[in-house]
Predict the structure.
Amino acid sequence: MPLTGQKITIIGAGIGGLAAARALALRGAEVTVLEQAECIREVGAGLQISPNGAAVLRALGLRPETFGMANSAVRLLDLRGRTALRMDLAPLAESSGYYLCHRADLIAALAHGAREAGARVRLLQRVDEITTGAAPEIHIANRARVRPALVVGADGLHSRLRAAILGEASPRFTGQVCWRAVVPATPEDPTRPEARVYMGPGRHLVSYPLRGGQLRNIVAVEERAEWAPDSWSHEDDPENLRRAFAGFCPEVQSLLARVTRVNLWGLHRHEVAPRWFAGQTALLGDAAHPTLPFMAQGANLALEDAWVLAASLAEGLSGAATPEAARAQIEPSLAAYQAARRPRAERAIRAANRNAWKYHLRFPPLRLAAHTALRLSGALAPGAMLHQFDWLYAHDVTGGQRLAPDLDCPVSEGDLCP
C-alpha cells in the first residue's frame, strides 16, 4: 500500500479527523489521533449528510443508512406554517442519498471505522504547541513530544495548527446567533422525514427528525447586535430561544416548548485559510475553512477533505522507492490537496454566506413577493431550485472508488470511550 510505514498524527477526533484516520489507515499509514477530551463526545445535535458527503462514507465502507434517516425533502415555510416551496430530494437518492443524522451516531461510526482500520485514538492529549516545517513536532501538555512524518490539524475553529501556520485568526461577528437543541418527538410532529425551514423577519428555524423519528433536531438563527462567543459549548436559557420565535406557528411553538437545554453559538465569519499546509503539516475541515451553517456543508466538506488528503498522499507517494523518497513527496502531495480542495470550499462557503438573507426578509411586501416567487417556482419548475446546487451535491470526490467492504457500525449511546 502506498502509505505503508508513514507515521501520521491527526489532531482532533471530530468528523474530519476520524474520517481522515480511516482513509489514511486503509491506505497503509500508521495513524495516531490525538484528542484532548477524556472521551470522544459530541454535544447532542443533528446534521445533514448530503450526497457528496455520503459518497465518502460509502467509499470508506460506512453506510449512512445504518446510522441516519433518508431525507425525502427540504420544505420552506413562512412563520405561519404555510409552505412556500418543497424541494423533493428523491432524485438525490439515485446517487449516494441524503441523510439526517445525529452527530454522535456519525462520530461513533467514524471512531469505530478508524480503530477497525488500525488507527490509534489517544485521549487526554492536549496539544500546547506545534512546530511546522520538514520535521514537525507536537508538544503535548504532559511534556511529551511527538515527531511524525506528517501532522494533520483537524482541530476545528480554534485550531492550534492553523495558528502555527498562519498566526492567530481575526473572525468577524456576523450579527447573527444560532441555537441548537434536540427534543423528544411527539405524535403531533410532521411524520415525513424532511427538513423544515420556517422563515421569519430577521430569523429562521430548521427542524428535522433523528434516530428513526424518536427525536427532533432544532437549529434556530436570529439576527441581533449583541455579541455571542464563537463556540457551541455555551449554554443559553431556553426562554431566550422561545422569546425569539414567539410569533411563529403552533408547530414551532410545540417544538420549543420541549426544549430544556439549548446551546448558543455566535456566528462569526472566518476566512478560508490562504495556505492549508506548511512543510509536512496540513489543515483539514473547519481548521482550514470554517463555514456558516446555511448550506449544511460543514461535515460534508470535512469528509471530502479527508478523502482527498489521503488520496493525494497515496498518489504522490506511490512511486517512491525508499522512505526518504516518500518523505520528499509529502509536501508536493499537500500542495495537490490544497489545489484540489480550496476553490471548492471557497465556493461552498460563498453559497452559505448568500443563503442567510433569503430566510430573513424583514420588509413585509418584499417577504410576500419572495415567498410568492418560491411558490410559483415550485409549481412551474419544481426541480430548478435543487438543480442549481448540482455542482455541490452531485460532485463525488471518490470517483466511485471503494477502499473497504461495508463495516457494521454501532450507534452511539453516550460518550465513546474505549
User: Anything to note?
Assistant: The CA atoms of residues 80 and 249 lie 5 Å apart.
